Amino acid sequence: MPLVSNKHPLAIRWFHWVNFPVLAGMIWSGLLIYWANGIYRVGVGGHTLFHFFPDGFYKRLHVPQRLAEGMAWHFALMWLFAINGVLYVLYTVFSGEWRYLLPDRRSFKDAWLVTLHDLHLGKTLPPQRKYNGAQRIAYSLVVVMGAGSLATGLAIYKPTQLAWLTHWLGGYEWARWEHFWLTIGYLGFFLIHVAQVARAGWNNFRSMVAGYERVPPPSVNEVRDAPEP
Amino acid sequence: MPQSHDVKAGPPRQTEASDDEIKRRGRRGFLASALAVGGGYGVWHWLGTRRRDDGIPWPLRRALETNESIARDFQAPAHRAAEIAAGTAPPNPRLNGDIGLQSRVDSASWRLNVAGLASGNGTASLSMDDLLALPVTRMSTRLCCIEGWSIWVNWGGVRYSDFLRRYPSATRSGEPADAGQRPHDLYDYVAMATPDGDYYVGLDVASVIHPQTLLAYEIDGAPLTAAHGAPLRLVIPSKYGVKNIKRIGSIRYTGVRPADYWAQQGYDWYCGI
User: Fold this and answer.
1) Burial class of residue B74, CB neighbours in 10 A (0-12, 13-18, 19+)
2) Are B242 and B250 in contact (CB under 8 A)?
3) Residues B112 and B126 sit within 8 Å (Cβ to Cβ)
4) Helices (H), B75-203
5) Fewer CB atoms inside 10 Å of the end CB: C or N, chain B?
6) Best residue in B1, B3, B64 to probe A by mutation, most A CBs within 10 Å?
7) Residues of A in contact with B5 (CB under 8 A)
8) What is the interface pTM, i.e. ipTM, of the complex?
9) CB neighbour list of residue A37: distance below 8 Å, 6 or more residues apart
10) Short-list A150, A63, B143, A21, CA closest to A52
11) How far, in Å, CA of B247 to CA of B252, rounded?
């Protein structure tokens, strides 16, 4: 009989798939808010390479003049985002899943080898348990980013009531800047994550939906060529 | 579904399963996901199509009000907005908002009409000289616009709590207002409007008696310009800029939540920051 690996517990799948639409909603409502004062750019000195965001981008997505709507959704969805995130962290702590997720001493070297391998620049793929070093770093970092979004979000939401937090994050204007760039960070994470899931294939994707993964039969000199995202 | 992991030992637990069983588990997983996606879409669609309550679906309005209740529970005079040394903000701050400022105003004939006072018939009509007779407070605080930008501004005027001490409002108990000793005896709300009534804000009284709330008549050490809200405007750094009403014509103490210009257009009524 074939072997299956019971890869993702139901709780983790639940947290993952609840987070996806909730975070998408936070980013979308955040964009409706950001439009009202869209000042950030990437540039060198006075020269702007890219402005967040061009007018055409807003118009195409029907973003303009929806600040009130964006704020209403943002400050309702924030509860779901925070509660889901806190429950996820608590779950990983108490279930022991954190052992798969936290980077350890080897992770950084492993992550380098995995990156070279995935870019077709290297041949060796370090042995992995549930996640490889690159995944451990990415999945831990995104949780830290989530906590960062919560902290910077609160700092700009209540700069008087939580003045200590706003101060600690560099002040109101910096906290807003940090909140924005964390969001751009999620979009970067999302692109790489989806590309890696596509690369890893159906067996891996199914494990985040149904929980299990088929274990490939062992073969001589087999190197698993696709790390699971 | 079997979920147990032997996390300490290494890879997730492996079990044997027949091809049929594997297919069955897959089908079950995707069916459950399809239901979850449908349910999620249903909730989102339901929320978006609810009756509007001042411009937004009522469940979102309730969410904003819940956030307000939590914020008001934690509200304290000790929570101060950031300040820089008085007078050190860059001069000529950005201008925004001119609703209620369309007609001309003359400081000499301007009157501040106050209703809901403890004394006499409960009303007073105050001149600029009445306000100038009160102690002046100068401070430089950040004005945070609801749009996202913020500016430091050098303000000067009467601390609202000083104004309330001189002109006490009526209270629930009937005693004259004493914001310091009996803040809960005050009526919950304060309504302010421009003389023409075109712009109006509703405020919770705790935010109004906060030590950083001013009835301001100076900007950058000089009398307010018309565009900045001459002769008297509200400065309330614990709220977004929209609550910092310019050219106040009337103040009214009330137990009923007052209407608010921007809240009627989909924004949060409380706007506390």
Assistant:
1) exposed
2) no
3) yes
4) 128-132, 160-166
5) N
6) B3
7) 6, 9, 95-97
8) 0.93
9) B145, B147, B148, B149
10) A63
11) 15
